[in-house]
From TrEMBL:
Signal peptide: none annotated. This is Transcription termination factor MTERF6, chloroplastic/mitochondrial-like. SMART domains: Mterf (SM00733). Gene3D superfamilies: Transcription termination factor 3, mitochondrial (1.25.70.10). It comes from Coffea arabica.
Protein backbone atom coordinates (compact mmCIF):
# COMPACT_ATOMS: atom_id res chain seq x y z
CA UNK A 1 0.00 0.00 0.00
CA UNK A 2 2.83 2.34 0.90
CA UNK A 3 4.53 1.56 -2.42
CA UNK A 4 1.37 2.43 -4.36
CA UNK A 5 0.95 5.68 -2.45
CA UNK A 6 4.58 6.50 -3.09
CA UNK A 7 4.14 5.92 -6.82
CA UNK A 8 0.88 7.89 -6.80
CA UNK A 9 2.58 10.81 -5.10
CA UNK A 10 5.46 10.58 -7.55
CA UNK A 11 3.21 10.72 -10.62
CA UNK A 12 1.24 13.60 -9.06
CA UNK A 13 4.41 15.64 -8.64
CA UNK A 14 5.52 14.64 -12.13
CA UNK A 15 2.34 16.08 -13.62
CA UNK A 16 2.53 19.21 -11.48
CA UNK A 17 6.09 19.77 -12.66
CA UNK A 18 4.80 19.54 -16.24
CA UNK A 19 2.22 22.24 -15.60
CA UNK A 20 -0.97 20.18 -15.18
CA UNK A 21 -3.56 21.45 -12.71
CA UNK A 22 -5.35 19.23 -10.19
CA UNK A 23 -8.46 18.88 -12.34
CA UNK A 24 -6.49 17.71 -15.38
CA UNK A 25 -4.50 15.26 -13.23
CA UNK A 26 -7.70 13.85 -11.76
CA UNK A 27 -9.18 13.39 -15.24
CA UNK A 28 -6.09 11.55 -16.46
CA UNK A 29 -6.03 9.26 -13.41
CA UNK A 30 -9.73 8.58 -13.95
CA UNK A 31 -9.10 7.85 -17.64
CA UNK A 32 -6.17 5.52 -16.95
CA UNK A 33 -6.14 3.74 -13.58
CA UNK A 34 -2.70 2.26 -14.29
CA UNK A 35 -1.15 5.72 -13.95
CA UNK A 36 -1.36 5.46 -10.18
CA UNK A 37 1.29 2.75 -10.15
CA UNK A 38 3.67 4.27 -12.69
CA UNK A 39 7.09 5.29 -11.32
CA UNK A 40 8.00 8.89 -12.00
CA UNK A 41 11.18 7.77 -13.78
CA UNK A 42 9.22 5.71 -16.30
CA UNK A 43 6.81 8.57 -16.99
CA UNK A 44 9.77 10.92 -17.50
CA UNK A 45 11.42 8.47 -19.88
CA UNK A 46 8.31 8.09 -22.03
CA UNK A 47 7.71 11.85 -22.00
CA UNK A 48 11.29 12.46 -23.19
CA UNK A 49 10.86 9.86 -25.94
CA UNK A 50 7.86 11.73 -27.37
CA UNK A 51 10.10 14.75 -27.70
CA UNK A 52 12.82 12.76 -29.50
CA UNK A 53 10.42 11.58 -32.23
CA UNK A 54 9.56 15.15 -33.18
CA UNK A 55 6.56 16.09 -31.05
CA UNK A 56 6.95 19.68 -29.88
CA UNK A 57 7.37 20.13 -26.12
CA UNK A 58 4.37 22.47 -25.94
CA UNK A 59 2.15 19.82 -27.57
CA UNK A 60 3.19 16.88 -25.38
CA UNK A 61 0.84 17.85 -22.50
CA UNK A 62 -2.09 17.71 -24.92
CA UNK A 63 -0.91 14.35 -26.30
CA UNK A 64 -0.59 12.87 -22.81
CA UNK A 65 -3.84 14.45 -21.67
CA UNK A 66 -5.72 12.75 -24.50
CA UNK A 67 -4.00 9.39 -23.95
CA UNK A 68 -2.33 9.20 -20.51
CA UNK A 69 -1.87 5.48 -21.08
CA UNK A 70 1.21 6.43 -23.13
CA UNK A 71 3.14 7.02 -19.91
CA UNK A 72 2.38 3.49 -18.69
CA UNK A 73 3.55 1.64 -21.80
CA UNK A 74 6.92 -0.07 -21.99
CA UNK A 75 9.31 2.16 -23.89
CA UNK A 76 11.32 -0.49 -25.71
CA UNK A 77 8.61 -3.16 -25.58
CA UNK A 78 5.77 -1.03 -26.99
CA UNK A 79 6.39 2.64 -27.85
CA UNK A 80 9.58 2.29 -29.87
CA UNK A 81 8.36 -0.69 -31.99
CA UNK A 82 5.04 1.05 -32.69
CA UNK A 83 6.70 4.30 -33.75
CA UNK A 84 9.18 2.40 -35.93
CA UNK A 85 6.30 0.58 -37.60
CA UNK A 86 4.44 3.84 -38.23
CA UNK A 87 7.63 5.36 -39.62
CA UNK A 88 7.64 2.75 -42.39
CA UNK A 89 4.30 4.15 -43.57
CA UNK A 90 5.51 7.72 -43.95
CA UNK A 91 7.74 9.49 -46.43
CA UNK A 92 8.40 12.66 -44.45
CA UNK A 93 10.14 12.91 -41.04
CA UNK A 94 7.34 14.85 -39.33
CA UNK A 95 4.41 12.69 -40.53
CA UNK A 96 4.53 10.23 -37.63
CA UNK A 97 4.81 12.99 -35.02
CA UNK A 98 1.88 14.79 -36.65
CA UNK A 99 -0.23 11.59 -36.63
CA UNK A 100 0.50 10.96 -32.94
CA UNK A 101 -0.34 14.56 -32.08
CA UNK A 102 -3.68 14.25 -33.90
CA UNK A 103 -4.57 10.90 -32.36
CA UNK A 104 -2.27 9.88 -29.47
CA UNK A 105 -4.24 6.66 -28.92
CA UNK A 106 -2.58 5.27 -32.03
CA UNK A 107 0.38 4.38 -29.78
CA UNK A 108 -1.77 2.20 -27.54
CA UNK A 109 -3.02 -0.03 -30.36
CA UNK A 110 -1.36 -3.32 -31.21
CA UNK A 111 0.63 -3.41 -34.44
CA UNK A 112 -0.12 -7.10 -34.93
CA UNK A 113 -3.79 -6.99 -33.93
CA UNK A 114 -4.84 -3.70 -35.52
CA UNK A 115 -2.39 -2.24 -38.01
CA UNK A 116 -1.51 -5.40 -39.96
CA UNK A 117 -5.16 -6.46 -40.59
CA UNK A 118 -5.97 -2.85 -41.48
CA UNK A 119 -3.23 -2.70 -44.11
CA UNK A 120 -4.39 -6.05 -45.51
CA UNK A 121 -7.99 -4.77 -45.73
CA UNK A 122 -7.02 -1.65 -47.68
CA UNK A 123 -4.72 -3.59 -49.99
CA UNK A 124 -7.60 -5.99 -50.75
CA UNK A 125 -9.85 -3.15 -51.96
CA UNK A 126 -7.13 -1.75 -54.17
CA UNK A 127 -5.50 1.05 -52.18
CA UNK A 128 -1.98 1.45 -53.69
CA UNK A 129 0.81 0.52 -51.31
CA UNK A 130 2.35 3.98 -51.60
CA UNK A 131 -0.95 5.57 -50.52
CA UNK A 132 -1.61 3.32 -47.51
CA UNK A 133 0.72 5.15 -45.16
CA UNK A 134 -0.34 8.58 -46.36
CA UNK A 135 -3.98 7.73 -45.73
CA UNK A 136 -3.46 6.31 -42.23
CA UNK A 137 -1.08 9.04 -41.09
CA UNK A 138 -3.42 11.74 -42.39
CA UNK A 139 -6.34 10.27 -40.44
CA UNK A 140 -4.73 8.09 -37.72
CA UNK A 141 -8.12 7.44 -36.10
CA UNK A 142 -8.62 4.85 -38.84
CA UNK A 143 -6.55 2.43 -36.79
CA UNK A 144 -9.23 2.46 -34.08
CA UNK A 145 -12.10 1.63 -36.46
CA UNK A 146 -13.53 -1.85 -36.66
CA UNK A 147 -12.97 -3.46 -40.04
CA UNK A 148 -16.13 -5.56 -39.79
CA UNK A 149 -18.52 -3.05 -38.21
CA UNK A 150 -17.35 0.22 -39.77
CA UNK A 151 -14.88 0.08 -42.64
CA UNK A 152 -16.60 -2.78 -44.48
CA UNK A 153 -19.91 -0.92 -44.20
CA UNK A 154 -18.37 2.22 -45.74
CA UNK A 155 -16.95 0.19 -48.63
CA UNK A 156 -20.29 -1.57 -49.23
CA UNK A 157 -22.11 1.75 -49.24
CA UNK A 158 -19.73 3.27 -51.79
CA UNK A 159 -20.09 0.15 -53.92
CA UNK A 160 -23.89 0.58 -53.81
CA UNK A 161 -23.40 3.95 -55.51
CA UNK A 162 -21.79 2.23 -58.46
CA UNK A 163 -18.18 2.75 -57.47
CA UNK A 164 -17.23 -0.91 -57.64
CA UNK A 165 -14.86 -0.85 -60.64
CA UNK A 166 -11.43 0.48 -61.57
CA UNK A 167 -10.38 1.10 -58.00
CA UNK A 168 -12.96 3.88 -57.57
CA UNK A 169 -13.55 3.15 -53.89
CA UNK A 170 -9.86 3.19 -53.06
CA UNK A 171 -9.52 6.54 -54.84
CA UNK A 172 -12.30 8.00 -52.68
CA UNK A 173 -10.73 6.74 -49.45
CA UNK A 174 -7.27 8.00 -50.39
CA UNK A 175 -8.58 11.39 -51.47
CA UNK A 176 -10.60 11.89 -48.29
CA UNK A 177 -9.73 9.33 -45.57
CA UNK A 178 -11.85 11.26 -43.06
CA UNK A 179 -14.98 9.92 -44.77
CA UNK A 180 -14.35 6.64 -42.93
CA UNK A 181 -15.12 8.33 -39.62
CA UNK A 182 -18.75 9.03 -40.51
CA UNK A 183 -21.82 6.88 -40.04
CA UNK A 184 -23.42 5.53 -43.20
CA UNK A 185 -26.95 5.83 -41.82
CA UNK A 186 -26.58 9.12 -39.98
CA UNK A 187 -24.43 11.05 -42.46
CA UNK A 188 -23.41 9.49 -45.79
CA UNK A 189 -26.79 8.09 -46.87
CA UNK A 190 -28.80 11.23 -45.91
CA UNK A 191 -26.32 13.42 -47.81
CA UNK A 192 -26.56 11.15 -50.85
CA UNK A 193 -30.36 11.31 -50.80
CA UNK A 194 -30.20 15.09 -50.50
CA UNK A 195 -27.99 15.30 -53.59
CA UNK A 196 -30.42 13.09 -55.49
CA UNK A 197 -33.29 15.37 -54.45
CA UNK A 198 -31.53 18.25 -56.21
CA UNK A 199 -31.79 16.44 -59.51
CA UNK A 200 -28.40 14.77 -59.73
CA UNK A 201 -28.41 11.51 -61.66
CA UNK A 202 -26.29 8.49 -60.74
CA UNK A 203 -23.40 9.57 -62.98
CA UNK A 204 -23.42 13.05 -61.43
CA UNK A 205 -23.51 11.51 -57.97
CA UNK A 206 -20.58 9.23 -58.70
CA UNK A 207 -18.59 12.19 -60.00
CA UNK A 208 -19.30 14.10 -56.78
CA UNK A 209 -18.18 11.21 -54.58
CA UNK A 210 -15.01 10.48 -56.58
CA UNK A 211 -13.81 14.06 -57.03
CA UNK A 212 -15.21 15.77 -53.93
CA UNK A 213 -15.90 13.09 -51.29
CA UNK A 214 -15.74 15.74 -48.57
CA UNK A 215 -19.18 16.95 -49.75
CA UNK A 216 -20.63 13.59 -48.76
CA UNK A 217 -19.27 14.06 -45.24
CA UNK A 218 -21.07 17.32 -44.51
CA UNK A 219 -24.23 17.68 -42.46
CA UNK A 220 -27.33 18.22 -44.61
CA UNK A 221 -29.22 20.47 -42.20
CA UNK A 222 -26.27 22.49 -40.91
CA UNK A 223 -24.38 23.08 -44.15
CA UNK A 224 -25.89 21.77 -47.39
CA UNK A 225 -29.46 22.98 -46.89
CA UNK A 226 -28.45 26.54 -45.84
CA UNK A 227 -26.22 26.79 -48.93
CA UNK A 228 -29.10 25.58 -51.10
CA UNK A 229 -31.37 28.23 -49.58
CA UNK A 230 -28.75 30.90 -50.27
CA UNK A 231 -28.39 29.87 -53.91
CA UNK A 232 -32.18 30.03 -54.31
CA UNK A 233 -32.32 33.48 -52.72
CA UNK A 234 -29.59 34.63 -55.10
CA UNK A 235 -31.82 33.89 -58.07
CA UNK A 236 -30.81 30.43 -59.24
CA UNK A 237 -33.66 28.11 -60.23
CA UNK A 238 -33.70 24.36 -59.47
CA UNK A 239 -32.28 23.40 -62.86
CA UNK A 240 -29.41 25.85 -62.49
CA UNK A 241 -28.68 24.66 -58.96
CA UNK A 242 -28.51 21.07 -60.18
CA UNK A 243 -26.06 22.21 -62.89
CA UNK A 244 -24.01 24.12 -60.31
CA UNK A 245 -23.78 21.16 -57.93
CA UNK A 246 -22.98 18.69 -60.71
CA UNK A 247 -20.36 21.03 -62.16
CA UNK A 248 -18.76 22.19 -58.93
CA UNK A 249 -20.05 20.21 -55.91
CA UNK A 250 -18.18 22.27 -53.24
CA UNK A 251 -20.70 25.05 -53.92
CA UNK A 252 -22.82 23.26 -51.30
CA UNK A 253 -20.15 23.41 -48.59
CA UNK A 254 -18.36 26.69 -49.29
CA UNK A 255 -18.80 29.49 -46.77
CA UNK A 256 -21.65 31.79 -47.75
CA UNK A 257 -20.06 34.75 -45.99
CA UNK A 258 -16.47 34.28 -47.12
CA UNK A 259 -16.82 32.57 -50.49
CA UNK A 260 -20.18 32.42 -52.26
CA UNK A 261 -21.50 35.82 -51.22
CA UNK A 262 -18.46 37.93 -52.16
CA UNK A 263 -18.12 36.20 -55.56
CA UNK A 264 -21.77 36.60 -56.51
CA UNK A 265 -21.71 40.21 -55.34
CA UNK A 266 -18.60 40.91 -57.44
CA UNK A 267 -20.11 39.24 -60.51
CA UNK A 268 -23.40 41.15 -60.34
CA UNK A 269 -22.47 44.53 -58.86
CA UNK A 270 -18.94 45.04 -60.15
CA UNK A 271 -18.72 43.00 -63.34
CA UNK A 272 -22.33 43.79 -64.26
CA UNK A 273 -23.09 40.22 -65.30
CA UNK A 274 -26.10 37.97 -64.77
CA UNK A 275 -25.93 35.03 -62.38
CA UNK A 276 -27.11 32.81 -65.23
CA UNK A 277 -23.53 32.90 -66.47
CA UNK A 278 -22.41 31.03 -63.34
CA UNK A 279 -24.82 28.21 -64.12
CA UNK A 280 -23.06 27.86 -67.47
CA UNK A 281 -19.66 27.91 -65.76
CA UNK A 282 -19.93 26.47 -62.20
CA UNK A 283 -16.13 26.53 -61.80
CA UNK A 284 -16.56 30.28 -61.31
CA UNK A 285 -16.71 29.57 -57.56
CA UNK A 286 -13.37 27.76 -57.68
CA UNK A 287 -11.34 30.82 -58.62
CA UNK A 288 -9.83 33.20 -56.09
CA UNK A 289 -11.59 36.53 -55.78
CA UNK A 290 -8.55 38.77 -55.30
CA UNK A 291 -5.87 36.93 -57.26
CA UNK A 292 -7.94 35.96 -60.28
CA UNK A 293 -11.43 37.47 -60.58
CA UNK A 294 -10.64 41.05 -59.63
CA UNK A 295 -7.29 41.18 -61.43
CA UNK A 296 -8.53 39.71 -64.70
CA UNK A 297 -11.73 41.76 -64.71
CA UNK A 298 -9.68 44.92 -64.27
CA UNK A 299 -7.32 44.05 -67.13
CA UNK A 300 -10.20 43.23 -69.49
CA UNK A 301 -12.19 46.30 -68.46
CA UNK A 302 -9.25 48.60 -69.19
CA UNK A 303 -9.11 47.25 -72.75
CA UNK A 304 -12.90 47.17 -73.11
CA UNK A 305 -12.78 43.43 -73.82
CA UNK A 306 -15.93 41.33 -73.39
CA UNK A 307 -15.84 37.54 -73.06
CA UNK A 308 -17.52 34.65 -71.29
CA UNK A 309 -16.57 33.61 -67.77
CA UNK A 310 -14.96 30.42 -69.04
CA UNK A 311 -12.85 32.36 -71.56
CA UNK A 312 -11.80 34.72 -68.81
CA UNK A 313 -11.02 32.18 -66.11
CA UNK A 314 -10.46 28.71 -67.53
CA UNK A 315 -6.73 29.09 -68.24
CA UNK A 316 -3.53 29.95 -66.41
CA UNK A 317 -2.20 33.50 -66.21
CA UNK A 318 0.25 33.12 -69.09
CA UNK A 319 -2.41 31.85 -71.49
CA UNK A 320 -4.85 34.49 -70.31
CA UNK A 321 -2.43 37.33 -71.06
CA UNK A 322 -1.54 35.84 -74.42
CA UNK A 323 -5.16 35.15 -75.39
CA UNK A 324 -6.19 38.77 -74.93
CA UNK A 325 -2.85 40.33 -75.97
CA UNK A 326 -2.34 41.81 -72.52
CA UNK A 327 1.36 40.98 -72.09
CA UNK A 328 2.61 44.42 -73.13
CA UNK A 329 0.05 46.22 -70.97
CA UNK A 330 0.99 44.24 -67.85
CA UNK A 331 4.70 44.86 -68.50
Amino acid sequence: METTNSHNGGIMWFFKDKGFDDKSIHEMLKKCKRLEGVPREKASENWAYLRTIGIQERKIPSVVGKCPKILTLGLHEKLVPTVECLATLGTKPKEVASAITKFPNILSHSVEEKLCPLLAFFEAIGVPEKQLGKMILLNPRIISYSIEKKLSEIVQFLASLGLSRDGMISKVLVRHPFIMGYSVDKRLRPTTEFLRSLGLNETDLQRVVINFPEVLSRDVNKILRPNLAYLKSSGFDYGQIAALVAGYPPVLIKSITNSLGPRINFLVNVMGRRIDEIADYPDFFRHGLKKRLELRHKLLQERNIHCSLSEMLDCNQKKFLSKFCLVEQLA
